[in-house]
Amino acid sequence: MNVLEQLTAKKDFTDTEKRLAEYILAHQEEMAEMNISDLAKKAYSSHSAVVRLAKKLGFAGYREFKIALAKAFQESRHITSQVDPNFPFRPSDNAAKIAKQVADLCIESIRKTFSGLDNQVLDQVAQLLLSSQRVFLFGTGDSQIRARSFQNKFNKINRYLIVADEYGESEWSAMNVKQADLAIFISYSGESRSYRKFIQYLNRKKIKTVLLTSNRESTLAQFSQLCIEVPAGELENVKVGTFASQISFEYVLDTLFSVVYSKDYTTHLVDLKNKEWVLDENFFEDQLD
């Protein structure tokens, strides 16, 4: 076991040593700058108790212990741990612990989403994005923010997607979708009542639909032409926030944009350089004044 694991286990620790271990684990990022007197004072202990703890863990003294602790702390920052997507942090966690937990949640959410992706479906959706006359994006709340980000990326390559729920006009948007268009629904549960009506209507009209959801067996999934599934795990209401689901949705949408972009990579790069020149010549020349 490394020093962090030893401190966590607290095997054969006295009450004083347990108190020291708990303080050190809660303030790992501060330990590199803390001398033995500071640690003893802040942990309500003594100089000799700190030395005894260091020796019990197999170190010659506090200096050697602190070096090992710093190394173990840096290594732990690069190891992901299992995080509850509903409550990724606790009220007792400090800023460093919360940052690590949220980072682990982001990494694990993307890893799980990636492992479940169907590359053939990704390519099919990308082809629909390219071939459809218009693309309507249906998403509410946080999912609409993901839809707007997706829309913004496509603006850069002269593809102008429509956020269907904007201004509360989703019903009108649904009626305006034509057979040459594509409708993309973003729904974590896949059981939105309003979207169920929309997707059933579009299905009857034989209009192409794509669903991003965590539930492939949902009602919306049954009526969608293509379905991209993200990992489940978030509770419907009891959670700090929609961290994991929105990370997964953002990752899938970024991937779809990248696949579309790659289909005509050189053209997009040339267009980007031309636009940069136009911006510099026409819009940015007076900004230094």
Characteristics of this structure?
single chain, 289 residues, alpha/beta
Secondary-structure topology with pairs:
Elements: H1 3-9, H2 15-26, H3 36-42, H4 47-56, H5 62-76, H6 95-116, H7 119-131, E1 135-138, H8 142-155, E2 162-163, H9 170-176, E3 182-186, H10 193-204, E4 208-213, H11 219-223, E5 226-229, H12 243-263, H13 265-282
Parallel strand pairs: 1-2, 1-3, 3-4, 4-5
In short:
This protein is an alpha/beta fold and 289 residues long.
Overview of this structure, please?
The chain has a five-stranded parallel sheet with strand order 2-1-3-4-5, with helices on both faces. The protein has 289 residues and is an alpha/beta fold. It contains 13 helices and five strands. Helix 11 links the parallel strand 4 and strand 5. Helices cover 56% and strands 7% of the residues. The model has no long low-confidence stretch (mean pLDDT 90). Helix 3 crosses helix 4, helix 6 packs across helix 12 and helix 7 packs across helix 12.
What fraction strand?
5-15%
- State the order of secondary-structure elements, H for helix, E for strand: HHHHHHHEHEHEHEHEHH
For the biggest sheet, the summary is:
5 strands, parallel
| SS summary, helix count | 13
Radius of gyration: 26 Å
Q: Please report the total strand number as a whole number.
A: 5
Anisotropy-based shape: elongated
**Overall pLDDT:** 90
Question: Structural class given helices, strands, pairing?
Answer: alpha/beta
